[in-house]
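Morning run. Coffee first, then this:
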Amino acid sequence: MEKTKLGISVGLFGALVFAAALFGGYMSSIIILGYVLLFEANEWLKKSAVKAVATLVAFSFVTAVIGLVPDAINWVANVINTFGGNVRFEFINDVFSDIKGVISILKDLVFLGLIYKALNQGTIKLPVVDDLINKYM
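And here it is:
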């Protein structure tokens, strides 16, 4: 079993990388990514650290794009209401809030799966994220 410079197994450290992305957010993930890229030699661990941050960014991007839709619809409703109309699209906010909740649950499940697979130095294929990592790394 290969060990990191910190003395723990590579698989366990990979699981820690994904757990940091899930529970710690961007700051902890970027700090761990920097450490891994600068000091660790294992290629799987480097790709896993980049994958953790890239997956976090991908889920944030999807959530932000979905959040734009109700904002745009509410802006249109406000413009119509400014000129004397009486338009309300409250149900759209509820629908998109539910969609964001489903994406949040999906993010948690993906990261939990990645944590589990990382213990044996495995991974779950995430098509867009893996393609970008393989192309640029």
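The chain is about 80% helix and 0% strand. Good start to the day.
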